[in-house]
Request: fold
Amino acid sequence: MKSICFYFQVHQPFRLRNYRFFDIGRNHSYFDDIQNAWICRRVADKCYLPTNKLMLDLIKQHNGAFKISYSISGVALDQFEKYTPEVIDSFRQLAETGCVEFLAETYTHSLAALKSKQEFIDQVKIHSRKIETLFGVKPKVFRNTELIYSDEIGNMVADMGFKAQLTEGAKHILGWRSPNYAYSHSNRKDFKLLLKNFQLSDDIAFRFSQHTWQGYPLTTEKYVDWLNNVETPQCINLFMDYETFGEHQWKETGIFEFLKHLPSRVLSHSKYTFNTPSELAETLNPVDKINVPYPISWADEERDLTAWLGNDLQDDAFDQIYELEEKIRKVDDLNFWIDWRYLQTSDHFYYMCTKWFSDGDVHKYFNHYDSPYDAYMNYANVLSDLRIRLDDALNISFLPSVEQIKSNIVRNDLLEKTETKKKKTETTKKAANKTKQPKDKEEEKPKRTRAKTTKSEK
Amino acid sequence: MFGWEYPPHITGGLGTACFGLTKAMVSQGDQVIFIVPKAYGDESTEAARIVNASDIIVDFSKEVYNEYWKNLSYIEVNSQIIPYVGVDDFYNVINNRIKQYEGIKKIEHQRKYEFSGKYGPSLLEEVERYAMVAAEIAQNYEYEIIHAHDWLTYKAGIVAKKISGKKLVIHVHATEFDRSGENINKAVYDIERFGMDNADHIVCVSDFTRNIVITRYGQDPEKVTTIYNGANSMSVQEIQNQKTVKEKVVTFLGRVTFQKGPDYFVEAATKVLQYDKNVRFVMAGSGDMLNRMVALVAKNRISQNFHFTGFLKGEDVNKMFALSDVYVMPSVSEPFGISPLEAMNANVPVIISKQSGVSEVLKYAIKVDFWDIDAMANAIYSLLHYPALSKMFIKNGKKEVESIRWDDSAQKLRNLYYKLLR
Reply:
């Protein structure tokens, strides 16, 4: 059996607004609703809606022979619900065909797996719940933010009951081995790993419209030939950003035409079938186990974490946001949780990367900040405000009870006096009620008692 | 090379830049004759042979001057406004200069045609005189190419070119638009334009300046090349923590003139001080906007935290940097801007305006639009409050400055010369 496994990443971060230091302590709305709505709308029109429609047509056309999978981040789903609900509907239509699998990931596309086990597990759980409520299926296969994986992360994911995880077919992990087979976790044979074939994936995702690339122009004929040339594969995992279609590769490049004709060409001119990750996880036997002591990702040449973490700004911001976890877990107010989680989205750290000072073009496309410093300053300002809010909230909830104040702060003798005073006023009130005295006289009496107490204090 | 000043007698970035460039050129095997209007005798000769234009005896009876004067006589000079603001305290300096040159003028009177006396006492007269002297020099020295730095020397360059027939390169360190905004001095603009039109090639210190030369002076882009300045290897003045105030210090250092945008610094300071009183702002330097800045500080009620030092020189500059936590250069229009490099070299994080040439080469600096007071205030606040940011700048800034080398500039310049001479 030879399989092609398509997985598409759908993600939009909640971008921060321009948050100046003079907003700290005054303005608690951090996210740029206008920009987020605008980008969401644009990408929906250019990519999500037309591509979803095309996928639906293809699935219907091939009567279940064409299968795909998605991982949609929780923050993307939140934005769709807010700004472009029709995108949710179109994904729901795809879900109904039964040929589409939805994968689990962290709710806010976060890097929590590297820092906080508790938060990582929580985020995966709420994401799975969200997918289940929206699309009616509980995810069985996991993929982490940016395909980040290590033995340790694999352990956590397997403990949560997932059968398999997707990650990068990084050369420095695989060595001579091919990514086109199923592998297993270093010490858990039942936990399978599906590795991205970055060559064939990036041919579509990055090189499709590159005029300087020797494969240009890429046709379905050429591509299926390449697929056929792969030696004895089990599965070829084509993992890419969904925004490849129509957003990273514009409609004018012919990317939609390519996609439209690819399934029929594959089915008619090769022995490949299309399968979903969970199908592969069930049917394939791992050929080997792989050791990943240090986390890998699908980014850049290095396939490591340096796009998000590593420089001082990123590390500082990353430490700071997770330092807040302890406090966050003490408050009930949902607003804190939402802000804190949205701030964990990996993109915020990506904007602070100084790696590509020299060749910033590709990355600039995804970055609305002028420089990594702007990104950091903005983020640090927001965190300052969140910290102040948190401390305020905790101070209020930690306020001792009235009884405690009475026993600790107020001297007991004073307390007794005020209590006797209270009794007095009450009795006089009662007496007043009985004798039906006019109101003004009633008011006079408490005043007099107050004057007495001040004297006695002296 | 025609220049206007040379270390140690410098009043601005021009002398420093000329020194750095010539030093690198000489170390790479080129020979440079550097001509200044007045040499004091103690100029650094490690880099170039210094020729004092004031020592050149000009025989104005020669036909060639007649010719030159005929050609140039159309230049109308009127100078109620003294055009050269490339000097700190220009009014003082110019006044001194005028005194200095009065003596020379007397000698000149004996040798002139219809030259002196026609014009008011101004720099423009010096420019003319310099050009005259250049003719003499052009005849007496051996060289292959003529290189003139900034408008003061353009005429000298042109005269030398006319006489020798050698190629002329002019080097634009600043334009009249940088110095005066839109209210340009037409006489200066004309000289600049005249120089550019007559040059075989134009070198600009940044793309920022190159754009001005192309759009405002109508030059052919083919003829204009950007060669960035380098950073002189600055002796590291290890001044141990000399902080005398416990508050953080934010510094503006430069001429207090329109070009440097001091008013934006004051406004940004006001914003920061509204939220954080534990900061002191220092404006070091003087200039024609100083009084207005003092008034603005008073008006904004921030004088408790805002200080003026007047013009700083040499050791005092280093001390100022040692005291500073942030350096701000909010220039409205800055062809290059060497002072941020000096600050970075002294381990001070810098904020520079996007309207500066140096922002094209620096990575470890926060860049803001000069008019964006909010962004500037935010950057100041962030550098003061988020140690990760300032540490990163301190860690990498110095290294970056060391990588901006005059050797690279000299190399590029030589390539350009070869292209011209081919």
